[in-house]
Amino acid sequence: MTKYGGADIGFLLVGGYSVHSYVTAVDENHEAILEETTVLGDTWETKALVNLRQFALSVSGFYDDVAGASNEALVGLSGASQVACMGFEGNTVGKKFIGFQGPVQTTYKRTATRGALHKVAADYRGSGQLEEGLVHWPLATVSGATADGTAVDNTASSALGGSAYFQVSALVLGGYTNLALKVLHSSDDISYPALATATVVTAAPAAERVTVAGTVNRYTKGQYTFTGAGAGQSASIFIGFKRN
Amino acid sequence: MYRILVELSYPTDPAVLARLRAHEDVPWEERGMTVHLPGELVTDVPEESVPWLLEQGVLERVAGGGMDLLVVGTAGQLGHSGGSEGLDGGDL
To answer: Cβ–Cβ of B48/A190 closer than 8 Å?
Structure first.
């Protein structure tokens, strides 16, 4: 068993915004909904699962007005369902991350106190599911034309599909047409067909969750490609995959 | 010959394939992966991958390779030998 701490929060991405460098605390909780089934004659309360779950997410940290920083990421309160990813165990291929299908931000709070830096806090309510996947491309800046990530070996294939998470927190196309992100899979770690493909990205921030059905082969890995031609391109990307 | 149905990448360098077949961990930079898009015709898919790629619908076998070359290319693009414009069965 390995214990983890604050230094192991490898990334916190919400709708393509990378906010973990501004956050001092994050609270994720999910619960199964119960209904009380106590009836007359019972001396102890009883409850039963109603086969419904929900999640909530809260973050708090420092106010920062730089483009793409905490204020820009949180101030919108658009009510839109977003895609969020959080790395609890670091920022390494194969480590677990939490994928949030549709957190909707419900609050944004800015606090100014004498003798202290300004603080921010935000709450999200789940509109969709929360799932635990594996990092396939750690949050990092890439600048090549294309590359595949390190393969994740599940030791066997699975038959129930999965969910791919794609986040782009910064993008300089440098003349290229767009940035394409994919999850590939393979039975033999030699040939890799595409498994899940994100909508091509032309501007950051951007985030997407893509579901796939059916067979997911033993090996999976992330891939990025700048489409077209250009120079001086770069992007900060994250790719994760949850096998069902 | 096979037609690509789902975007597919694989190495073609025999030395790389030999290392992979020996279960050596070959970095992506050394693999020299070639990427093929749906609709492309290929003949160099690593042989051990063919069965599962066919089974999963990533590839389909194309019957009569010569006819398929006629479909995807013009006469000027077809291989020929000895200065002849006629089709050379050896090129098919």
So the answer is: yes
Q: Tell me whether B16 touches chain A (CB under 8 Å).
A: no
Contact criterion met (CB < 8 Å) for A191 and B9:
yes
| Cross-chain residue pair B52–A188, CB shorter than 8 Å | yes
pLDDT value for B65: 52
CB contact under 8 A, B46 and A149: no
How many helices and strands (H and E) does chain B possess? Answer: 4, 5
What are the pLDDT digits (tens) for A166-185? 999 999 999 999 999 999 99
What is the ipTM, given to two decimal places? 0.81
Kindly state the average pLDDT of the residues B69-82: 40
The residues in B 25-44 lying below 8 A from A, measured between CB atoms, are: 28-29, 31, 33
Predicted local distance difference test score (pLDDT) of residue B91: 38
